[in-house]
Write a structure and sequence with these properties.
This is 7-keto-8-aminopelargonate synthetase-like enzyme. GO terms for molecular function: pyridoxal phosphate binding; transferase activity. Its cofactor is pyridoxal 5'-phosphate. Keywords: Transferase. The protein is an alpha/beta fold. The protein folds into 2 domains: 124 residues, Aspartate Aminotransferase, domain 1, CATH 3.90.1150.10; 235 residues, Type I PLP-dependent aspartate aminotransferase-like (Major domain) (Aspartate Aminotransferase, domain 2, 3-Layer(aba) Sandwich), CATH 3.40.640. 42% of the residues lie in helices and 14% in strands. The chain contains 15 helices and 13 strands. The strands form 3 sheets. The protein has a 7-stranded mixed sheet, sandwiched between helices. It has a 3-stranded mixed sheet with strand order 1-2-11. A 3-stranded antiparallel sheet has the order 10-13-12, with helices on one face. Helix 2 packs antiparallel against helix 12 and helix 5 packs parallel to helix 6. It is globular and about 55 Å long. 48% of the residues are buried. The structure holds 4'-deoxy-4'-aminopyridoxal-5'-phosphate (PMP). The site of 4'-deoxy-4'-aminopyridoxal-5'-phosphate (PMP) has 13 residues, from helix 5.
């Protein structure tokens, strides 16, 4: 599971007043942050974080006046910035302003929020859907609300932080199984299923660090046999997998209703911001009336709902973009492998890691690429294990073969040198 530097772990007071414990500087995570900054300064490596973009981030981006080939943004189908998506958002702003200004239950709906939800439900072929203001918060509140102390949540070892946080909030027992290893999950459930009331299996449609995906039909068979719920997070698979971009169910040729909880985000293929859940009517009714992160949070801004609705319609009307994204992803993967780079288990769909084997090397390679006019994000420990530190390339349908060739050429040179 992905880790974040934690606030806990501060030295335990053994009694008496310790004023230093009431200062944020004494927290271990803060000290860790300073140590990393110092190491970067010593090695004269510029920080790759919080760079300021001036303009749209797609296959290219402008940072401090210089144009870069960009692999650090998951604007997979180029929806953010597309003319029809911008126009839909602008029209919604003119009509409704920039905020929904209160919770939907209390202060009422804007039609575009329901239109987006109905379009998502229809895209999946399920009863209904619900849109929330953040993808991360969607996992936290939905998992946190639906499950409790008598339940078990079992997730892929590489599940996103938001799934883990939701499981922790729920108070359920939380276990993980080795990445994509359905046989290990089956074995685990055979051992412990009897100890719990309800069980949730949480997996992702496409894993955002490795770019690989699960065998969905196996997980469906296992969840049925063990009487469990199955949740699939499609943050990175909507718009990426399946002939028309409908995600992993379309890719695997499976009826979407076989999965109990579909989750996704509006921040990638859907050119906006927010999260969604799609599924059966009882599930969506329950969440619409009770999920704290929906009920006690503002409604999705009409402009963002309109942008995501337009992006979804654009995706469904333009399968050629989905096909191009796939073709460019496969091309990147093939060329990277031919150059002797370690691309891990990537299946060549939109997310391609280049594993450097150490955080330091990931930082150095990212900097060298940046100097060559290429923006690619390094991933360090503790986001992944130290030996799995990497650069991560998000491919967009608009990336050209020339941009990919130029990038692989720099990577091949760096690889040859180390
Ligand atoms: N789930 C997964 C698998 C993710 O990768 C992310 C973030 N990229 C999220 C959920 C959270 O989504 P958001 O960034 O839209 O809040």
């Amino acid at each position: 599971q992905r880790k974040t530097a934690s606030l806990s772990g501060a030295p335990r007071s053994t009694g008496g007043l310790k004023p230093e414990l009431a200062r944020f500087e004494t927290l271990p995570a803060y000290q860790q942050m300073l140590a990393m900054q110092e190491m970067r300064n010593r090695l004269d490596i510029e920080s790759p974080f919080f760079r300021v973009h001036d303009g749209q981030a797609g296959d290219t981006t402008v940072i401090e006046g210089r144009s870069y080939i960009n692999f650090a943004s998951y604007n997979y189908l180029g929806s953010s910035g597309a003319a029809e998506v911008n126009a839909a958002a602008k029209a919604a702003i003119d009509r409704y302003g920039t905020s929904a200004s209160a919770s939907r239950m209390v202060a009422g709906e804007r039609p575009v929020q329901r239109e987006l939800e109905q379009a998502l439900a229809s895209c999946y072929g399920v009863d209904d859907a619900l849109a929330l203001v953040s993808g991360h918060a969607t996992n936290v509140t939905v998992i946190g609300y639906l499950f409790g102390p008598n339940d078990l949540i079992v997730h892929d070892a590489l599940a996103h932080n938001s799934i883990v946080q939701g499981a922790q909030l729920s108070g359920a027992k939380r276990l993980s199984f080795p990445h994509n290893d359905w046989a290990a999950l089956d074995e685990l459930l055979s051992r412990v299923r009897g100890e719990y009331q309800r069980v949730l299996i949480a997996i992702e449609g496409l894993y955002s660090m490795d770019g690989d995906y699960p065998e969905l039909e196996r997980f469906i068979e296992i969840k049925r046999r063990h009487g469990a719920f199955l949740m699939v997070d499609e943050a990175h698979s909507l718009g990426v997998l399946g002939a028309t971009g409908r995600g992993i169910a379309e890719h695997a040729g499976i009826d979407s209703r076989e999965v109990d909880i579909w989750m996704g985000t509006m921040s990638k293929t859907l050119g906006g911001c927010g999260g969604y859940i799609a599924g059966s009517q009882p599930l969506i009714d329950l969440l619409r009336h009770f999920a704290p992160g929906f009920l006690y949070s503002v409604g999705l801004s009409p402009a963002l709902a309109a942008a995501s609705l337009a992006s979804l319609q654009r995706m469904l009307a333009g399968p050629e973009r989905v096909a191009r994204l796939r073709e460019r992803g496969r091309y990147f993967l093939k060329q990277a492998q031919a150059a002797g780079l370690d691309t891990g288990h990537s299946a060549g769909y939109a997310v391609i890691p280049v594993i450097t084997g150490s955080s330091l090397k990931a930082a150095q390679w990212s900097n060298a690429l940046f100097e060559a006019g290429i923006n690619a994000q390094p991933i360090f420990y503790p986001a992944v294990e130290e030996k799995a530190a990497r650069l991560r390339f998000f491919i967009c349908s608009t990336h050209t073969v020339e941009q990919i060739d130029a990038t692989i050429a720099v990577l091949a040179r760096l690889n040859g040198r180390s």
